[in-house]
Amino acid sequence: MSFPWAKHYEPKQPLMRWLDEKLPLPRLVYGAIGAGYPVPRNLNYFWNFGVLAGLALVVQIITGVTLAMHYASYSGGAFASVEAIMRDVNAGWFLRYAHANGASMFLLVVYIHIGRGLYYGSYKAPREMVWLLGVTIFLLMMATAFMGYVLPWGQMSFWGAQVITGFFSAIPLVGESIRIWLLGGFAPDNAALNRFFSLHYLLPFVIAGVIILHIWALHIPGSNNPTGVDVKGEQDTVPFHPYYTAKDGVGVGVFLLIFAALIFFSPNLLGHPDNYIEANPLSTPAHIVPEWYFLPFYAILKSFTADFILPAKLWGVLAMFGSILLLFFLPWLDTSPVRSANYRPKLRIALVVLLVDVLILGYVGGAEPIARNVIMGQIAAAYYFAHFLIILPWISRSEKPVALPHSITAAVLAKHGGTSPGHSALTTDDALTHNTALAN
Amino acid sequence: MVRTISTLIGAAFVFVLALALFGTVKTTITEPTPESVEHVFHQEPADIHLASAGLFGKFDDRQVQRGFQVFKEVCSACHSLKYVHFRDLTKIGYSTAEVKAIADQWAIEQPSINPDTGEPATRKNVPSDPFPSPFANEIAARAANNNALPPDFSLITKAREDGPNYIHALITGYQNPPAALKREFPSFSTPPGLHYNPYFANLNIAMPPPLTADGQVTYVDGTKATKDQMARDVAAFLTWTAEPNLNARHAAGIAAILFILIFVFLAWGAYQNVWRDLKH
Questions:
Q1: Could you give a single Gene Ontology term from the biological process aspect (chain A) (predicted)?
Q2: Distance of CA B161 to CAs A77, A315, A406, B173, Å?
Q3: How many contacts (CB atoms, under 8 Å) link A and B?
């Protein structure tokens, strides 16, 4: 697909030749994640996280399908069925802890994967479609994770469902009707639990489908790399297999190490104690908080406490959804032709501030709503929007990038102290023209 | 064009947040939130270092059995244990015959149906039964407990922050409100029927002190049954009821981590080997 020097699949076994004629599935795999996919040779460990996210999805589907064999999606029995899994199903505790912590691991690697894309400009031309599909996957994941958290029917499940579906009631006029329609009742109950279970089982397969599109779209321009400079020739790339399968092996190992530490030694670290209390519509928990991966968005929601034309609640809901939806526009908000923030001194600072900002929002999302935290959250939420909608578009206009390396190979050789005949850093203008020309 | 539109939208969000921020700051200055009594006088439980804590933690079966005895003789009068079965007791060292006897002699019988008349009835417990609840339903439980509901104990240590330590601290934490409390919060009171306990979230708990004297339980293994000892033992038992597979989990975890470490080592070697001739 991507580059003319990509190796072609040549089946040697008669059986594989036969299969290749009838259904070239091995050919597809070879070209997608095998030796037939040329990849820049300078990828760092941040490029492991796509594979890790794929692995996390597989883990979630396998453990989830098995859990569904023992789970009862009935509001009167869901909590007890989860306890039966924990106590009486063979290795049921392992399946459930793996699934619950697997969701956290999945979101964690996806956040790092998104952060990688933000820093190295992987959302820019010619990879806009890869980015759009990625944001779609992220939205589907958030919906799936939320509905999955409702299934054990603990206190946080129930009240989380109550709060999240309550967002829709902020819509003027029709909001309340939409909320009731979504829940199948006036409050979360059996109808809501059953439809959440149905969708929680369905959406991961939708995610898997969009991941196929995500990888397909990626293979047309090929992978980005830490310099953000385009591939110029064969010397810039290596075949995905064995080079990156070997490197991904190390990443997979470290991922499993952290995952196992969570499952076996601290399985409830990221959970909330209240979810071990069965759902009770008559008793509101003192402090309703979502899972850690939603906390920054929850903080944005809570930060809107003033009415201005629209009611505060509607602003909060608009801002919360907007904070994710604005990512769809990122390829057009950032107009700089330079991809990697390594060569964009101002953006680099802005991105470090953004990272700290999101961490602050995460803290505020889970913290008590005392004045200090609310003030911190409001400032951090303002910076979040300012970053994407104001700072980034203006930086990409005014910033002077530092000199880009001539090519990926030149960058690699320069790093190792050697010089190659073709190695000379282009002037900034040359590099800009060059990258823009390729981008178009 | 995109830049202009995005700047306007961004400015709108920032402006509304600035308004909200102004409101927060103004309220903070004009109406500072008074310190809450829970915030000042609530205490965090001390660590009781159970054998099951830590990476290599394993239940101390004798301690868990003592805790079971406390549960049986004290707690089970009010608290149910509905997700635990008598058969589970074999995992803390009781023999099948002992479990059969424990079930058979349990003070509360298992709800059942009279096979001849179809009327509700009760029968003796067998090992496959869950622990029967002391009250028929929530209304009965509240009626007998000054309108408070004794929570089920199956998951209590996982359903409370810092569960095992919390159980120990709560049971041993009953006391008179400190003098400073009455001075700083004159409006605070412990209504009749409630009990002051600084480890409880709102400081006034409905449960009367369950352990009132040393020696309330006579341990079969001869351990001296001080209040502190009984509280520790019942905390150990309730850690087990919430997480009965903890021993297996820790053992499997050590094996899994060692296995994955070997995998990482081999994967690292393979990675170095594949890339040895290529600068990157």
A1: respiratory electron transport chain
A2: 25, 34, 57, 16
A3: 172
